[in-house]
Amino acid sequence: MFWKKSLDKLKNALEKTRKILTTDVKDLFKIGRKIDDAFLEKLEETFIMADVGVSTTQKFLAKVKAAYKNKEITDQEEIREFLKKTLKEILVQKENSLNVSKDIPTVILVVGVNGCGKTTSIAKLAYYLSEQKKKVFLAASDTFRAAAIEQLDKWAQRVNVTLIRQASGSDPAAVAFDALEAAIARKADFLIVDTAGRLHNQKNLMEELSKIHRVIKKKLPEAPHEVLLVLDATTGQNALAQAKMFKEAVEVTGIFLSKLDGSAKGGVVLAIQNQIEIPVKFVGLGEQYEDIEPFQVERFIDALMN
């Protein structure tokens, strides 16, 4: 039942992107229309509008041209299946599952710029893990804004997980360290560490992020086991630039793509998977804490194209 509802949510979230791809592309493949420069240019424009990305789009166009030449596509009924098959071939198949420690707790550091939906994404992840009967702790290491701590506290209460917090203005690394000690002592399965909604061009904030990473590792050498970067799907290709910048500051291990339900740029998932060496691990499908989906390439493409 969970997966049925989840697939429906994924399809609904991708509605805007799906309309761009399936409607515009279908119009292109009129019976008798020949493949030429104008055709390829329009097809490229359609995929760029969905934020599939230039590199991924070019790979796709090469396959379209070959398919036409070899008469693999002869009518409109074959278009959707060809799109699905080709996109699956193009995407780099990475390990998308969450890295889980053999010894508890598994420590997940969550980073992202202001307004990306980071706090809500943390709540969704906490709920998702709690539903698997895991004991989850949160660390309120975004101490620059009192409102951030209060917001996380409200989410923690709603999803029924433990929050470790200090006063606004406290040392973020110290909060993370205290939370880790508490998680170890109380045998939590997961510790999710919130961080400031930092701007990716502010060097001092990036250095602070690195400090949190080091403090966690000093207490637990193999931690953090995951560094999830929350990216706003509505920002499209700008999300790729953010990913590259954060990757320079800390070892980002996965992407949580938020606000997919409000975006016509769902194709950015394809760009992220294909262009940078960071797998998408979760997608946010709405405003409620239940609106989360572990990312799977085949499920995503099926929902996108069906």
Topology:
Blueprint: H1 2-13, H2 15-28, H3 37-49, H4 54-69, H5 79-90, E1 106-111, H6 118-130, E2 136-140, H7 146-159, E3 162-164, H8 172-185, E4 190-194, H9 203-219, E5 226-232, H10 238-249, E6 254-258, H11 268-275, E7 280-284, E8 292-294, H12 297-305
Parallel strand pairs: 1-4, 1-5, 2-3, 2-4, 5-6, 6-7
Antiparallel strand pairs: 7-8
Helix pairs in contact: 1-12, 2-3, 3-4, 5-12, 6-7, 8-9
Q: How would you describe what is shown here?
A:
- This protein is α/β, with parallel strands linked by helices and 306 residues long.
- The protein has twelve helices and eight strands.
- The protein has helices spanning 2-13, 15-28, 37-49, 54-69, 79-90, 118-130, 146-159, 172-185, 203-219, 238-249, 268-275, 297-305; strands at residues 106-111, 136-140, 162-164, 190-194, 226-232, 254-258, 280-284, 292-294.
- Helix 2 (15-28) runs antiparallel to helix 3, helix 3 (37-49) runs antiparallel to helix 4 (54-69) and helix 6 runs parallel beside helix 7 (146-159).
What best-fitting shape do the alpha-carbon axes yield? elongated
Radius of gyration: 21 Å
Query: Spans of 5+ residues with little confidence (pLDDT < 50)?
Result: none
Spatial strand sequence of the major β-sheet: 3-2-4-1-5-6-7-8
- Proportion in β-strands: 5-15%
Measured as a percent range, the helix fraction is 40-55%
Overall pLDDT level = 83
Q: What is the straight-line distance between the termini? A: 20 Å
The structural class is alpha/beta
Compressed to H and E, one letter per element, the order equals HHHHHEHEHEHEHEHEHEEH
Strand runs, count: 8
Helix count from the secondary structure assignment: 12
Mind describing the biggest β-sheet? 8 strands, mixed
